Amino acid sequence: LQLSYNHTIINMYIVATLLLLVSVCDGARILAMVPFPTKSHWIVMEPLFQELASRGHQVTVFSSFPQKKPLPNYTDVDCSVTIPQNMNTFSIEMIKKAMPSPWGTTRFVNRLHEGSCKVLGEQKVKNVLNSKERFDLLITELFASDCFAYLAHKLKIPLISFTTSTAMPWGSERVGLPDNPSYIPNYLVNFSPEMTFWERIYNTAVLIYAKYWHLHVYAKQTQTLVENIFGETLPPLHEVVGNTSLVLVNSYHALAQSRPFPPNVIEIGGIHIKESQPLTKDLKHILDNSINGVVVVSFGSLVRTCSLPKPLIKMFMNVFSKIPQTVIFKYEEDLPEAPSNVVLRNWFSQRDLMEHENVVAVIGHGGLGSLTETVYVGKPMIGIPFFADQFGNIENIVRRGAGIQLDYDDISEEKIR
């Protein structure tokens, strides 16, 4: 009897010890509203949602880019049909006409916002609001997407915002982010942190304008828009976004600039960079046999390269025909005048290409995602910024000796060489 009793006690200790070692996980139900149809934005955000799902959270994602293969714990809601088709790609001339100044940029953002917010009227969103299943958290993009913050208000859940660029001037107050214009250039100007006195004055004026515009124009229009969709009176936008719990910023201080961040603002620059994948056989063959080096040319997913002015394309081709390197050029159409050393591709994984030892330089627009990849693999960049934060992004790598900048409006064959 004593032996049996001792054996029972030992078993109880073993069970108790095992129970203490067991990790108890409580997965959350997370709603993500990110329908903005720009591939470069989505590439940065997608890894977050995939990782949350892989860690056991139930993630429902409203986006314009459904997963190609179903993932466990990940529910896709395709918004691409609702979003106006002209919002996913633009010509350079259209962008420069729409965004000639900070004031034009804010108007452009407003138009994009109105297009994205059409999703709120979808039956799929109404199903979420009327569902008995409760969500625990809402994640939205900060760019042109503030209307979705009202879902957090209606569902009474915490809100996290994600910005795929550096911090925006109208996103500061909601989380107490300092944005001193004496040394922090804002999203709407093309300055580096080493501003002159007059640049600081201009930066201050633009910051004041941006905050005023967001509070008295954009916010009121957003509130009216959402009230019309939901058919009810809602609180002002600044009160709703003021409940933001966390902002994730796609920047990295060593690449951008040092600035104070409160605990509820976290830099996650490089989150989209994954392990490089094997190249396709044809691209690998081209890269392996380009003994003089390879130049990669890509202007991102928002701008169609074939929409560049024909004289500029001809200028590029003339320059490329006179250099010994092979040029891999992202171009969406046939180009009969392309010289023999220029390889055209409708799309390629820039990150995988740049890993190859024969790549010697990258020509790009300075979008933060591709720029971060370029710096990550240690390749120099020739930046030709077109709009928004691209100017500041290129300025930052020029200051650090990682690239040079060319002015799109003053470009020539001599400068490209």
TrEMBL record:
What does the record say about its membrane topology?
Single-pass type I membrane protein; Single-pass membrane protein
Which top-rank group of organisms is this from? Answer: Eukaryota
Task: Kindly list the places in or outside the cell where this protein is found, as annotated in its UniProt entry.
Answer: Endomembrane system; Endoplasmic reticulum; Membrane
Q: Does the keyword Endoplasmic reticulum apply?
A: yes
Which Pfam family, any one of them, does this sequence belong to? UDPGT
- Which keywords accompany this UniProt record? Endoplasmic reticulum, Glycoprotein, Glycosyltransferase, Membrane, Signal, Transferase, Transmembrane, Transmembrane helix
> Could you identify this protein by its name?
UDP-glucuronosyltransferase
